Each structure stands twice: as C-alpha cells, then as structure tokens.
Amino acid sequence: xxxxHDSRRALDVVVDLxxxxxxxxxxxxLSDAQALKAFMSRxxxxxxxxxxxxxxxxxxxxxxxxxxxxxARDDRAAALIVNELVAMGATPRLTDHDGHxxxxxxxxxxxxxxxxxxxxxxxxxxxxxxxxERNRLCHxxxxxxxxxxxxxxxxxxRRYCDGRGCGNRLHVAxxxxxxxxxETEAG
Length: 187
Description:
Layout: H1 5-18, H2 33-42, H3 53-71, H4 75-87, E1 90-95, E2 103-107, H5 113-130, E3 137-139, E4 148-150, H6 166-186
Antiparallel strand pairs: 1-2, 3-4
C-alpha cells in the first residue's frame, strides 16, 4: 500500500494519541497541558498558542473518538466516526512547504489544536477506509496489552504493538515453555 509522508505521520499521531489513554495502572498520557505540549513536540505539531487545559479536554474527547475507529464493527461504522472527525474542521488546501512537493493539508492555518488533529488524523484514517485497508487498524494481540497500531507490513502479518515489547516478550515465553517441555520429556 502506497501511503504519503503526511498520512504516515498522521497515522503515527493517531496511534500515539489513542495509546495515551489510561489503562489499568498506566496513567493518562495527556493528563495536563504539559503532557499535551510534550505530545505536540514529539510529533512536531506547531500551534499558534501554548496548549492549555481547554486544549487537553478537547484532545481527550478526540482521542475517544479515534479509539472507536479501531473498534468499529465494520467499514460503515468506522466511516461514520471518521466523517464526524473530518467535519470538525477539515479545510483542504494544497501546499509545498519544507522541501516537500505539492501535497494536501486538511486543516486551516491557525485552527484549534483539536480541529487540526481531527482533520489530519481523520483524513489519514479515511484514506485507509477508501483503500479497503481498515483491517490495518489493529489491537495488540498480547493478552495483557490494550495498545493499538497500524499494520503497514506488506502481508498484514503484524500482531503486536511496539510499545512494550509485547511480541518479543511472548516469543521468549513460548521459547521457554517449549524448552521446559523438552527438558521434562528428556528427563
């Protein structure tokens, strides 16, 4: 699947944003304006003003909507959510900044942070749905993990997130179990 630089970056933002939600003993990754500022810095998101608590509240609401796209029962349900996101403030325009060739931006210059994220992330998710690739939106299959990821592997074979070493941890556990089993049979 051919995916543009901006769409890839937006999908990375979607994943990081959804995975910032508190789960179990994992704290909220967007607990305050400072955490939101760090998130923006990590993803090179500029803003016309420093994020405040009102921005945090709006982005947390957006995070909940984005997470529903990963859990949508079918493409139609996912499309309804994505359409809501895009309607929050998409303003398509062509741009050729920072040495990149002409490409689309989906947000108005100077728009609110949540509107920027909704438009940009919503359009990246929309491109997956349009391409018939919504099945690339995945939940980690490790039993104790609730992280999401976008599987951009050629054969759609990825099963685990990268965040906590889930795949490696499970492979090591399976190896050790096989080793114990062979030692028991031999002994």
